[in-house]
């Protein structure tokens, strides 16, 4: 996957052809944080280009918000967002003093019956009580950080998602997965694109 992105990055580098635009002051553009966010957005646009998809969004030294849409063969919508907060407002300080909000979302439509509806999410402090009184809450076998909410038997899709997203579950990057109203939505807390994992997902789901 890296070589695919690099092939398009040659065309997009320097913002000459990028559709994702900088929204920054001249002072911000000299920041290494701006360069890092620019590279992230350029790589994202490069990947979507390999799928003949569409992108939009903007970035600066503090943040980025980008969207992509591809057809492979289902419609997939991708969203990546980052916000950076510092106590001093100075982006040149140590990254250890930064507070980051990062998220990624992958979403697609799946035409299946309502019996396949479920949620996989991180546990909360009161889930052990909910589990006693709510028979729709199940343990998640791969990691004790998560639980499953499903009214009927666990659909096979859960096993497939567990297999494909295993690394993201184990390192805690998965925040929530919902399969409701014929839509599958995967929410993460990550600064990574995870293109290789997404490739496997769209080819097997």
Describe this protein's structure.
The chain is an alpha+beta fold and 205 residues long. It contains 6 helices and 10 strands, in the order αβαβββββαββααββα. Strands 1-2-3-4-5-10-9-6-8-7 form a 10-stranded mixed sheet, with helices on both faces. A hairpin with a 2-residue loop joins β9 and β10 (183-188). It is globular, with a radius of gyration of 19 Å.
In short:
With 205 residues, the protein is α+β, with helices and mostly antiparallel strands.
Biggest sheet strand line-up = 1-2-3-4-5-10-9-6-8-7
Structural class: alpha+beta
Main beta-sheet annotation: 10 strands, mixed
DSSP strand (E) fraction?
Answer: 25-35%
- Quaternary status: single chain
Mean pLDDT: 86
H and E order: HEHEEEEEHEEHHEEH
Count of β-strands: 10
Tell me the overall shape: globular
Q: Which regions contain 5 or more consecutive residues with pLDDT less than 50?
A: 1-16
User: Tally the helices: what do you get?
Assistant: 6
Cα gyration radius (Å): 19 Å
Could you tell me how far the N terminus lies from the C terminus, measured between alpha carbons in angstroms? 19 Å
What level of helicity do the residues show? 25-40%
